[in-house]
Amino acid sequence: MRVALGIAYRGRAYSGWQSQPGGRTVQDHVDAALASLAGRPVRCISAGRTDAGVHALNQVVHFDTPVDRVAESWLRGTNRYLPDDIAVQWCRFVPDAFHSRANALGRRYTYVLLESPMRPALETGLVGWTFRRLDGGAMTGAAAALMGTHDFSAFRSAECQAPSPVKTIRRVDVARRGAYWRFDFDADAWLHHMIRNIVGCLVAVGSGGKPAAWLGEVLASRDRALAAATFAADGLYFVGPYYDPGHGIPDHTAAMDWLP
To answer: What is the pLDDT of residues 34-82, one digit of tens each?
Structure first.
């Protein structure tokens, strides 16, 4: 059978999602937990990779197994073998044709940023930080240039392995709640470090260091050297992919209500 899971994790202790020889990734822990429960090797396929330090609220994965267990067993049994900062949120049995990555219509991310004269303490590792005052209107105006289908080479890391830098951004929302800024992103797919590089540019505009029109100029240049520095991974959350409703894949988890 093919099983789909939704997984939430705090990424600070891990070298990203994708399995690596050192075994310090989220996937290494998830695969090991599934194997312990199934009594045989299991390798899951995710909807998208996350970098070191990046968190996830609804990472969707699928795997194939001949082991017949009820959904509750896959859910609670897997969590028994996972560390406290990784947990399966839901389980669904899906047709063999379902693919967590290939069937995703888009992927949503959120970046949470603390604006404060002092660095974070309780939220260390969970938010980005700036001590400069930000102008939400300026950032919203600058973000409008990113909407639609473009070559995003200016926001792409040198290590990016994507075959094409052309992506389609469907939504960029900028909102403030108290001392925290929230940047919500929705696109068909993302390049390596693309969101963190965009956030760095938005903060440069919001702090008055650059005019709003500058972001469009950076985009048009396709030159990474003209963009701002890559922002910290701490405040970045993979909210999750979304699919055609016919697949029955949940697009909401409890942690989404916790996020500022």
So the answer is: 999 999 999 999 999 999 999 999 999 999 999 999 999 999 999 999 9
Enter the tokens of residue 35. Answer: 């194997």
What is the third-level CATH fold of 2-103? Alpha-Beta Plaits (3.30.70)
Who contacts 32 (Cβ-Cβ below 8 Å, separation ≥6)? 81
Nearest Cα neighbor of 255 from 107, 120, 128, 112 is 112
For residue 233, the SS3 value is coil
- What radius of gyration do the chain's Cα atoms show? 19
CATH architecture of 106-237: 2-Layer Sandwich (3.30)
Query: Boundaries of CATH 3.30.70.580 in the chain?
Result: 2-103
Query: Where do the DSSP E strands lie in the chain?
Result: 2-9, 45-46, 55-64, 86-94, 106-115, 128-130, 148-151, 166-177, 180-187, 236-242
Active site positions, annotated: 51
Summary count for the chain: helices (H), strands (E): 6, 10
| pTM as predicted | 0.96
In whole angstroms, give the CA distance from residue 219 to residue 158: 16
Residue type, 3: V
